Every structure is written in C-alpha cells, then in structure tokens.
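Exercise 7. Predict the joint structure of the components listed below.
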Amino acid sequence: MAKPTPLSGFPELLPAQRQVEQQVLATLASTFELHGFGSIETRAVEPLDQLLRKGDTSKEVYLLRRLHEESAEGHAGMGLHFDLTVPFARYVLENAGRLEFPFRRYQIQKVWRGERPQEGRFREFTQADIDVVGRDTLPFHHDVEVARVMLDALARLDFLPGFRLQVNNRKLIQGFYAGLGVSDEGIDEVMRLVDKLDKLPSDKVRELLVSDAGITDEQAERCLALAAIRSVDDSFVARVRELGVDHPLLDEGLDELSTLVRACAPLATEAVRIEADLSIARGLDYYTGTVFETRLDGYESLGSICSGGRYDALASDGRTTYPGVGISLGVSRVLVPLLQRGLVTADRSVPSVVLVAVTDEESRGDADAIATALRANGVPCEVAPTAAKFGKQIRHAERRGIPFVWFTSPEGTGEVKDIRTGNQVAADPATWQPPTHDLRPTVSRLASLAPQPPMNKETNP
Amino acid sequence: MAKPTPLSGFPELLPAQRQVEQQVLATLASTFELHGFGSIETRAVEPLDQLLRKGDTSKEVYLLRRLHEESAEGHAGMGLHFDLTVPFARYVLENAGRLEFPFRRYQIQKVWRGERPQEGRFREFTQADIDVVGRDTLPFHHDVEVARVMLDALARLDFLPGFRLQVNNRKLIQGFYAGLGVSDEGIDEVMRLVDKLDKLPSDKVRELLVSDAGITDEQAERCLALAAIRSVDDSFVARVRELGVDHPLLDEGLDELSTLVRACAPLATEAVRIEADLSIARGLDYYTGTVFETRLDGYESLGSICSGGRYDALASDGRTTYPGVGISLGVSRVLVPLLQRGLVTADRSVPSVVLVAVTDEESRGDADAIATALRANGVPCEVAPTAAKFGKQIRHAERRGIPFVWFTSPEGTGEVKDIRTGNQVAADPATWQPPTHDLRPTVSRLASLAPQPPMNKETNP
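Solution:
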C-alpha cells in the first residue's frame, strides 16, 4: 500500500496534539457538569427532511447510501448532521415524556459539512454545545446562565488566546426598527443587510438599505448608528436612547441585554471579555431574543467561533412548544489552526509519567511488578520495550517527553530519575508520586500567543 | 412537526443511561492511560478501496454523497469506517515518520455498518480499541500486555456482568494441522470449518472436514479433539501433547499461549476470567499468532464482545512492515442491551449534587452566589428554575435524583438538606463537601445481574 495522504477538510491530530484536544474537551465537560448540564449524544444521522428544514442550503449535507443497497428502503433519505441543534430539537421531541424540564444538556460531537475546506472551515469537526430547554416557557435568567457557563468554560482554557463574547438581542433590534417605522416585512430585510457590516463598507450597506429594504436615508442612518454601538457595561442603553426611538419591544430588548451584560461582567477577565455589540444579528437563524457571537483574539478572520442565542420555539410538536437558549463552541475551528501552527503544544506524546527500565529480559517481570504498583497508585507508566543499554532507554523516554525513568533493584523497589534534571533518588513504587503538575501532560502556548489587552480595560472588574 | 420515532439500529440513550456510558468510557480511558496508551481519533471516513481491502462483504459500508454534488470529484469514493483497525493502519502509515514505535494507542469512537439491526447488532455503535504497533518487529510480550490491559479495564467495570476472555494462538492451530499432515492450502479451510463449531454440531463439522477440506477421518478427529481443549491455566499444553502431533510452529504456539495464560492468571477475579480455548480462531481475519474473544456472562448469545489478536503485518508500505497486536471492546454491544432492559442504572439524570433553592426572584442572585461558591469547590450544582414553594423545589430535586437541597440564608450561607434522609444542617458553601460517593452519579446493577461463579473456580487465584 502506498503512503496515504491526508483528506482535505478532515483534520487529524498527532498524539501530542490530541493530548491538547483531550484537555480542552475534559475542561469543557467538567465545567458544564459543575453547572448541572448533563451529557447526551445523538446518532450521527438524521432524516433528510429534518436536515433541510432550516432551509440554509449553504450547509451542504452528506447523504448516506449503503454499498449493497437492495431496495429504495431507508437510507436514501438519511444524512449526516451538520450541527447539534437540529438533532437536539428532534431528541427533545422524541423523548419529551422522559425528560425533566427545564432540561440542561451539553453535547460534544463531530458534525459534517460538505463545504469547500479553508482555514477554520472543515468537512468534519467537533462542536461543544450547551442548551437549556423548557416546556411552554423558559425564564430569561437561563439566557444569563448559558452565557455565564460558557464564559466560565472559556476562562479555564487558559492556554488558548483570549476570547471576546459579543452579545445582542433581536427584540432590541426589531423593536428599534419597528419604532423607526419600518414595516414588519421590512424588518427582516434590514436585519439581513445590517448583518453584512462585517463584509461590506457601511456606505454600501446604507445604499442597500434604501434600495433593497425601501427605507429612507434618515432611517438607514439611524439603523447604522444603532449597529455602531458597543460597550462592555450597560452604558449602551443611554446611547440607544439618544437615537430617539421608542417601542415596547425595544424596551424589552434593552432590559434583557443590560441584565445579561451586568450579570456577566463580574466573570470577565483579561483573557475572556464580554461586550454588548449591537451589530450582531446572527443572520438567517431563527433567534428571537438574545444572540451570541465570539471572536478569538488574533484570529478574528476565523469569524465567530462560539455562537448561539434564544429560540422561542427550539422544537414544537403542534401541541407543546419547547423554547430554548444555547451556545455552541467550534472546538476544531479554534484548536486545529493553533495546533497545526504548533502554537499550542503538550510536553509529551504519551500519558506515561514513568518509563520503567528493563535490566534484562529475564527480569521483565520485576519491571512489570513495579509498573503495576505505580498504576495502583494512579501513576500512568509504561515498561521499556527492550532491555537495551540504559542510555538508550533514557533516550526512549526523552523522545516521548516521559519525565521519569525507574531503575528496578532486585529487592523490588529501585531508584527514580528525573531525566530533565538528572536528579535520581531511591523510591518505593507503592508510595512514590510525581509532582502533581507532572501527572498529566502540560499544555502550553508560545509567548506570542499572549492575549491582547482588552479593548476597554478600565471598565473590566 | 409530528413526534419523531427512533431509527432502528441507531441507539440513543436517555440522560441517566448516558451517565452510565460516560462512566464506562471514562474508566476505560483512564485505565488505558495508566498503561501508557495515548488517545487518538481518526476521521469518520476512509477511501472506499481501503474499506473494501479486507474483502469481508458482510460488513456493509455506508457510502457518502454530497447533497449538492457538482462533479464526480472526491466523495463518490468515500465511506464511513466500519471498525477502528482499518483507519488505525492507515493513520500509522500516513504518520509513520512522526510517531514513536512501539506505538501504543487507544481509540474510542463510533463506527457504522449497514447491517440488519438485531439484539447487540447496531448500525451505529461505539468501540474501544487498544493496539501496540511496532516498526519491523514487535516482541511477544506486547501480546501479554494488551491482554493484561483489557483485563484490568474490564475488572474496573464492576457494575457490569462478568467477562470471560478466551485466548488461543494461530501458530498453535496451524502448527498442529501442519504436524498432522494437512497441506498448506488445506490449513485455512480446516481453520474456517473448525471455527463453525459454535454454530454447527461437531458431527457436521467432522463431515465437512472430510468432504470439503479433504482430510482423513483420523485427522478430522484430532482437529476436533484439539478444538475441545480448554483450561484456565497452562494444563492445556499436556493435553495437546497427548494428541501426539509434532511441529516447530505448534511448539512456538504452545509456548506463546502458555506464557500468555500464566502472565494473565494473576489478574483473574471472580468476575473477569481468562482461559485458553483452543476452538477460537477468529475466522477470516488476518491474525498470525495470539487471538482473543470474550463472552459476557449471561449474554453469551451476543457472541464475542471483545476480540482481537496479533497481526504480523497490521500495515505495510512495501518497504517497512508494522506488526501489531490489539483488542477491541464493543462498548455499545455490551451496554445498550443492559441499559434498554434497565438492568444497569445511574441514580440521577443530572450531574448536580445540589439544588440551590430560590426564596423569591429578587434573591436569585444570592442563590447564584451560593452555586458559584460550591462550584469553586468542585461541587456540581444547579439553581432552582423558579421561586416555587420549597416543597415543590424539593420534588424538583427528587425527580432528577439530586441528593441535596441548599436553602440560602440572608447572610450568604444557609442550610443543606439531604433529601434522602431529611437530615438538615447549617453549612458554609465555601467549605461544604458532599460525601465522596455522592459527587458523581452512582451506577449500579440489579442483583439478578450478579456474576455467575467461574467455570473452574478452584484454579483461579
């Protein structure tokens, strides 16, 4: 077999890179669980009509077909999921009678999109989603909750660049446009055009607002003024009020967004910030209140790497409606570019803290016994594959980043050498422990990845 | 949207069932890491020519096609992997220059097979594989290693029924047949027929050995006598010798198998046993030495739930050959039937140990502060969704199996009630800890699942 080549858009990690990903995923999962979110997994496939319900044809779906398809049965109508929201909504409806609401779940799984691969865009990638879903109603404090949980999780990923969580509220935007006199039908079009501000110059958007959405120059001006407002505290409220628009839905949106920003501000750090950004709308998605996007410091070109919001009808079976609020972190989108550039690394490629040296093949059993004692003590270790010269066994450990080598003595104990310092001491495998920070591979980033200073440092706590 | 119905062959778990699966997967992963095995994941898709290389058409492959396929490019030739061995062999070849050998990896992932669904057979399921792969050579002690690692992992799954690991050696079988005078071409056919002993009566197999493999009655008799030998220690060696066959390959196989059984015997417990079973051959798979199968006590009809063996050429690029030895646990095959029958359960459906009660909506912030303090202490918790009467909040906890309810006092501390016992004490959220066994959901099995006594109890250590 010739040497295989990678498949574009299907990233795979080397063992040391996977150590980094594992630590990220474990940190996310344990943080979500601290906040009472339970794990679920859904099957990889959904019926095609479900996958196409959102009507967003840019998410190219992979269809499944059996190699030995005898009939038109079944699989012709199945595809791989392209996000975790569609499957979650289906899971909630399917199991509603067996779930307790409000239902908090996290879901960390691969998703697939038949897109053209590019930086940060993959055909197979891992997402980490949290959602809270209610039956009939879901109080607003759950919007605050999901933002706080994700901020807590991101703050614990301290070997990554900083994050900026940008929040807005659809009620605020829609109420503002309605208060300006834009018709119900015009509001969606205005929102769609304003959402293009990250791609088009503001003058071009103003032009389109007049030509395509049919609003006046004066209305367009104020829509753009609204979208220009940002703040890391609730000072955005006064700036919106200065634009002189009144509407009950606008009031509701301002109230929700300021509550959210005030509740999240105490969690902000230098590396993880939150700001109200009134340009955020989340395009065509069916959000009805809070919306989230997130930028990775220094990697703004990746777009939003953590997005979500409030759906007043995440799912509905006609009789009962299930409102939800959630946020989804693009794990691969953040990690893969950093790992591929070697900007974030683990200091070993194996879990082993100790390599137990083998004096000769006859005494391999003694080395195995040392390893068994270390493992009983929770110390990951491996036994040298051959009874090579000790220098060669030490280099074997070095190449894998294993920090300690154990030399067995005939009495069943021995000496343990820290091969980074050369320090060697007598030790008993039944009680020996490495320093806690050596128990797992250490993940670190290059200094150049240090987070940039926050935009409005003085207002952060 | 009408209520969705499950898809046959694609099992999904409810939150409490998923807690059980998570604990199984975490136990497997941490055991594998204690033994120095690192995690990797491979993409879900492989080129179709790779997937069909094994020539086993019974593993029906799912092909991928993009919904908006503009050209014949790419995806026409891609399918979902049906095991983790084919992708691992490809990963080793693709990354050989960047891996350290011997390379130990574990891989816990979903695989897909377009088979007809039945008990223990799914179209999407999770496997947990461990393998050690060498470059050019791989000493036999790694065969012993993977058996010991899997025994250690299975023994830690003490809420499952017992396991019986059955081991044999292809060299032993092939050497025996060769020593009997069976031709090189006949050996594979004899092995294939003897492998049918679990489905056909022994008389029928004897008949086929004569008619299809072309061996004599006397030869067939001794092949069946060999396959009837089982022992939990190395006493099988003497019984094979009594059959009066001599061959250097037989000697090698006997030596390897007895080494393996002796090295594993000290790890056997009542629940997890090992035995030499000379009928095990692993059919058409390309094993060249050690072979493994495993039966789940009381669920023998599931077939082997954990199988593997030694491949002298797991992968090869023409210049370099990579021998490997590994074993694969069918996690879904074991767990899903037990979970679906409710025989193994978790005592709560959420990770939360504590529900922090809310006195009124105005003081929700106080409850949030208690929760933040508990989380800083590593205690998973959630805050009540509404300020209902305390009786209702307690029932909210009960329905989820949350063992403790925290009542906040105005000073920011409060009282914590164990709702199982009714015991309520004053407590400080900065220091309070639940009993360690309450930190995570407790997984338990029905008493009827207690392991059966081992077959040869007196010979277990």
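Discussion. DSSP finds 13 helices and 19 strands in chain A.
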